[in-house]
Write a structure and sequence with these properties.
Blueprint lengths: L3 H8 L14 E10 L2 E15 L6 E5 L6 E5 L5 E8 L1 E2 L19 E2 L22
Antiparallel strand pairs: 1-2, 1-5, 2-3, 3-4, 6-7
């Protein structure tokens, strides 16, 4: 149980609209990188294999399938520019660490055909087919 005083202090540092994604999704994560006086966004693409923590300490782990590189991102970090869902997959585990031992086709998961939401959790607008076909 977290103390209310700690929650009040943490509330100031939480993201206004944290991105909505699940373990098993393939995502693009945009990270702001400061180089001298310039700032750029570097994209890291991979599968979300874990989420942990709560509040301002919540993190998620993204793993690249081809290279085997992993990065842990703080969910409420100001350096996180965006999290874009590419595809969603149905998984039955909270952590997918078993994928570390697998390569190639062995890392395939069943694709989830749910309606994807954009980065802020809103459903995309769909145009009605005027032909009715």
């Amino acid at each position: 149980m977290r103390k209310r005083a700690i929650e009040r202090v943490e509330a100031q540092h939480l993201a206004k609209e944290p991105p909505r994604f699940r373990v098993g999704d393939i995502v693009d994560v945009g990270v702001r990188i400061q180089e001298g006086d310039k700032e750029r966004v570097q994209v890291f693409t991979g599968r979300v294999i874990a989420r942990r923590g709560c509040g301002s300490t919540e993190t998620f782990t993204v793993r690249r399938d081809i290279v085997g590189a992993e990065r842990v991102f703080p969910l409420h970090s100001p350096h996180l520019a965006f999290v874009r869902i590419i595809t969603s997959h149905r998984v039955r585990r909270a952590k997918l660490h078993y994928l570390r031992k697998r390569v190639g086709k062995a890392t395939r998961l069943v694709e989830d055909r749910r309606e994807t939401e954009d980065v802020r959790g809103r459903r995309p607008t769909t145009e009605k087919d005027p032909g009715g076909g």
